[in-house]
Design brief:
Strand content: 25-35%
Shape: elongated
Low-confidence stretches: none
Number of helices: 2
Distance between the termini: 28 Å
Helix content: 10-25%
Number of strands: 6
Strand order of the largest sheet: 2-1-3
Oligomer: single chain
């Protein structure tokens, strides 16, 4: 399991982990002293008892890197691959788009 290198012994590091969680990145946690990290969908942020980390982006199952969205007579549709016969718009995850997206 590859983790982002964030120093959570500092307040700034803890804030960074929580910001990345808010953006949809996958979070893992463990009790202080435990060796094994466990994926956690909605952490309670108990920093006194637990350690939290962010999975490296290539391992993060939180969301696809981009999706394609289009419209037809039945409404809208989306997917992770483009269909050649349709007019689709590609949306990139905000945390991967750069800037203030």
């Amino acid at each position: 399991m590859n983790l982002e290198q964030i120093d959570t012994s500092t307040t700034a590091g803890k804030v960074r982990v929580m910001q990345l969680a808010e953006r949809g990145r996958a979070i893992v946690c463990r009790q202080h002293g435990d060796a094994q990290w466990i994926k956690h969908g909605s952490p309670q942020w108990d920093w006194e008892r637990m350690q939290y980390a962010v999975l490296a982006d290539h391992e993060s199952p939180a969301a696809p890197r981009h999706i394609w969205v289009g419209f037809n007579d039945g409404g809208f549709f989306c997917g992770t691959s483009r269909t050649a016969s349709r007019d689709l718009v590609r949306y990139i995850r905000a945390d991967l788009a750069g800037g203030d997206a």
